[in-house]
Automatic annotation (TrEMBL):
<dbReference type="InterPro" id="IPR052892">
    <property type="entry name" value="NA-targeting_endonuclease"/>
</dbReference>
<dbReference type="InterPro" id="IPR003615">
    <property type="entry name" value="HNH_nuc"/>
</dbReference>
<dbReference type="GO" id="GO:0008270">
    <property type="term" value="F:zinc ion binding"/>
</dbReference>
<protein>
    <recommendedName>
        <fullName>HNH nuclease domain-containing protein</fullName>
    </recommendedName>
</protein>
<feature type="domain" description="HNH nuclease">
    <location>
        <begin position="76"/>
        <end position="135"/>
    </location>
</feature>
<dbReference type="GO" id="GO:0004519">
    <property type="term" value="F:endonuclease activity"/>
</dbReference>
<dbReference type="GO" id="GO:0003676">
    <property type="term" value="F:nucleic acid binding"/>
</dbReference>
<dbReference type="InterPro" id="IPR002711">
    <property type="entry name" value="HNH"/>
</dbReference>
<dbReference type="Pfam" id="PF01844">
    <property type="entry name" value="HNH"/>
</dbReference>
Length: 175
């Protein structure tokens, strides 16, 4: 699959001049278009589908929106992990809550690599999990437990917020 270039607001399609922020996958690009975070500015045909090859953000990305730029991490807490994961269990995809309708959906934070096996409490080793999945996984890795992650955890210092949505960013944007 080709990579899609993501430009800051202000891309000029006639000259191709714009501020290139990063590249992303076609799948992620469609997600950004659907959430109206970005619009396609360049399209191509691929396997009889029209796919974007370049996007332009619908709102300008400025330094103010770069979370934790220049810092190693942003305000780390279990609550922040849930916020990042949109209160969604990384294993079953169900919504978790601190006051769930049933105990199985109680919001817990899972160490992907268990603490007992040297796993750290870091952004990239923690995900939201429902109590049921957390108990089932126990002291095993996702592979051992046969419970693949539905999304990859990331450090919010490597992300930016556009129109209220947090987007993964493979590279740091200089503020
Ligand atoms: Zn779950």
């Amino acid at each position: 699959m080709p990579q899609v270039r993501v430009y800051n607001l202000g891309y000029d399609p006639d000259t191709g001049i714009g501020e290139l922020l990063h590249t992303t996958t076609v799948r992620h690009a469609f997600g950004m278009i659907r959430r109206e975070v970005a619009i396609p500015v360049e399209l191509t045909m691929l396997d009889e589908r029209i796919v974007p090859t370049a996007l332009e953000l619908t709102r300008e990305l400025s330094g103010a929106w770069v979370e934790g730029a220049g810092r190693r991490s942003v305000g780390f807490s279990f609550r922040a992990v849930h916020e990042r994961d949109h209160w969604t269990c990384a294993y079953c995809g169900r919504s978790v809550s601190r006051t769930p309708a049933c105990e199985a959906l109680l919001a817990t934070v899972d160490h992907i690599q268990p603490v007992s096996r040297g796993g750290m409490s870091s952004w990239t080793n923690l995900v939201s999990a429902c109590k049921e999945c957390n108990n089932r996984k126990a002291d095993r890795t996702p592979v051992e437990a046969g419970m693949p992650l539905r999304f990859e955890p990331y450090d919010p210092a490597l992300s930016y917020r556009v129109g209220g949505h947090v987007e993964d960013l493979p590279i740091l944007v200089s503020a």
